Structures are given as structure tokens and as C-alpha cells.
Amino acid sequence: MEYLYFPGCSLEGAGRQYDESLRAVFRALGLGLKELEDWNCCGATIYMSVDEATSLAVSARNLAIAGRDGGRDLVAPCSACYTVLLKTNRFLRESPELREKVDRLLGEAGLAYHLDVRVRHPLDVLVNDVGIQTIASAATRRFDGLRLAPYYGCQIVRPERGFDHSEFPEAMDKLFGALGAEPVYFPVKTRCCGGMLMTTFPEVALDLVRELLVCATENGAECILTTCPMCQVNLEAYQDRVNKKFGTSFAIPVLFFTQLLGLALGCEEKALGLQRNLIPLKLRAAA
Fold this sequence. Notes:
By secondary structure, this protein is an alpha/beta fold. It has helices at 16-28, 52-67, 79-94, 96-107, 122-138, 171-177, 197-200, 202-218, 229-237, 239-246, 257-264; strands at 2-5, 32-35, 74-75, 119-120, 147-151, 182-183, 223-226, 254-256.
């Protein structure tokens, strides 16, 4: 199987280890991953509040380019990119008026989009295309006894997504459970980490991060797994500020789910970007 790949801006910056580990996991499983030619920023969310049609056209440009590649699914690991690309597909299907405007804007760049690209999250691809048992059979390492908190964040499993339950997702729980790990009770697994509020209303964001860290540690998690570069940064990089503000002593590793999965598949730590994480994960001897 081969997929088109939309890394997005974060995975070329602060979330570089997500890009590295995702590529390594796909290689280990024999999956092709072709980076989308000449991709641009998905448009994130702020453009939507300024100029809806232009915002959708920025996103749709990527989908139009993907559509020229023969109908392969487009994998978008960043939660924001995944959400925006999906939203673009939905808005263009549901609003002929918006689609007409976006078609006109794309046409000025010599592009056309026919709503024929399926946007996928890599967790969806791994669990539902490859299969948990296939991955478990390919693993060279198990994580027996490792207690982890699977954190999905507030974007990838909302109702329009469809590949997991919108409030109580279990894809990561089942995947890493099959590798011997023990997902802890983590009822805040889809609660927001604060996102960009960390740069605009940091007091609010720090409190949101604290709640997530409290839930993970009080339930015995040794690490947190995430699917989103913004969540990973907020939960890991701001632990010192949370500790200073609330008098706590958090020091819990926060990894991309692909980093831990890569370890299970025998990938080298450097190939997974583990040296880029601020708080190292200390694992027991490999089984």
C-alpha cells in the first residue's frame, strides 16, 4: 500500500520527531509514503475567521494537487491539518456557493479539485488498513507492564471524523494493549490541551495542561502518548511552567504514538527522533 503524505508545517519544525517516527514506522511495515509535491500550509484555523473562501482555497490547493496523483489517500498526521483538510472537503460538498468561489480561485492557479481525495490520519491507517494483529506480529519488542495515558486531543475523533468514537476513542488503547502496554484510566483523553492559547492566554492554557498531567500521573501513567504536535509541545515543554505556577513536580515523558510504535517495530531511537524529546522515556529491558 502507498499513501500520499501531507507533513504540514509543524512536522518540519517543533514536531520534527513526529515526521521522522512516522516515516520510520511506515517503512518498517512496508507502507509507501509519497510526500505531496509542492504542498503549502493547510491554512490552520485563523484564516477561516478572516476570509472563508480564501481559507478553503489555501487548503483545497493541497487537495487539488493530491487529486492529480491517481486517487491515493492523503495522510495528514497533524491534528490541525487533518481537521482543516477534512473540513474543506465537507464545506465544499455542502455549499455550492463556496465551492464556486474556491473553484474560481484554484482556476487562477491552473488547478481544479473534484472532491475526490480521502484524508486519513495515520492512526486510522495503521489500525484499520494494516491491522492491530498484523502490527503486533511484526513487533520485535513488547512493552509488558508499561502504563501509558493515550491522549487523542480535541480534534481527530470528533463526529465528522468517523474512524473512532468521538468521546471515548480506543484505537491507541487497543494498539498498544496488543503490544503489552497497559493504558491507564484517562477520562480526559479528548480534552483540549489549550492549543494556541499558550501564546495568547497562557494562564488558561497552563491550567488545561495541568489537568491533563494530573489525570495521567494520578492514574499511574509512566508516559503520555499523543497524536498531535501542538499537544505534544504543550504537554511536554510547559511542564516546568506548570510546576512553577501550581507548585507541582511533573516530569512525565510525552511521546508521539509513532515513536513508541517505532520502538516496538525495532526502529533505531535516532530514526524515531527520540533525542529531540525533552523528557526521556526510561523503558525496562526489551523482551
